[in-house]
């Protein structure tokens, strides 16, 4: 469900990217940066970031904005009301080491959630 009302009667629209192949710790840096910003300003910030997670977060933010536009929200008044990154499952791989040993490697995933609302 893309549309939900908050406790103040204000509408929110959400989008998510589940099982993104990036570490949650790296993605949280970008999520913290755009929280509370206007949507267009946040997209501009994400466009010029060099982190790989900025590309993922921009796609999720655009999707949330499209969800709001389909419900005929005022696009100029939209801001990022919530952006969070939750840890997902991770793949366990093993790196061969000396004398027949193997060391584990965790290939981490995350779930990115972005909610936009009108001011």
Mean pLDDT: 92
* Residues in β-strands, percent: 35-45%
> Strand order of the main beta sheet, please?
1-2-6-3
Q: What's the architecture, going by CATH?
A: Alpha-Beta Complex
What is the CATH topology descriptor?
Ribosomal Protein L22, Chain A
Report the principal-axis shape: elongated
CATH class: Alpha Beta
pLDDT < 50 runs, ≥5 residues:
none
**Counted beta strands:** 6
Helix amount, in percent? 25-40%
Count of alpha and pi helical runs: 3
* C-alpha-based Rg, rounded: 17 Å
Fourth-tier CATH superfamily name: Ribosomal protein L22/L17
Helix and strand composition category:
alpha+beta
Structure commentary:
The protein is an alpha+beta fold. The chain has one domain (23-118): Ribosomal Protein L22, Chain A, CATH 3.90.470. Helix content is 33%, strand content 37%. The protein has helices at residues 24-34, 39-47, 52-70; strands spanning 3-5, 11-20, 78-87, 91-96, 102-107, 110-118. The strands form 2 sheets. Strands 1-2-6-3 form a 4-stranded antiparallel sheet. A two-stranded antiparallel sheet has the order 4-5. Strand 1 (3-5) and strand 2 (11-20) form a beta hairpin. The longest helix is centred in the middle third of the chain and has 19 residues, at 52-70. The protein is elongated, with a radius of gyration of 17 Å. It starts with a strand and ends with a strand. The model has no long low-confidence stretch (mean pLDDT 92).
């Amino acid at each position: 469900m893309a549309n939900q009302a908050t406790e103040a009667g204000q509408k929110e629209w959400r989008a998510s990217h589940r099982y993104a192949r990036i570490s949650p710790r790296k993605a949280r840096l970008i999520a913290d940066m755009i929280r509370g910003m206007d949507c267009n300003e946040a997209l501009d910030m994400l466009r010029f970031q060099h982190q790989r997670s900025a590309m993922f977060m921009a796609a999720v933010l655009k999707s949330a904005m499209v969800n709001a536009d389909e419900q005929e929200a005022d696009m100029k008044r939209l801001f990022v009301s919530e952006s969070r990154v939750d840890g997902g499952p991770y793949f366990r791989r093993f790196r061969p080491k000396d004398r027949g040993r193997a060391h584990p490697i965790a290939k981490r995933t995350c779930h990115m959630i972005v909610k936009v609302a009108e001011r």
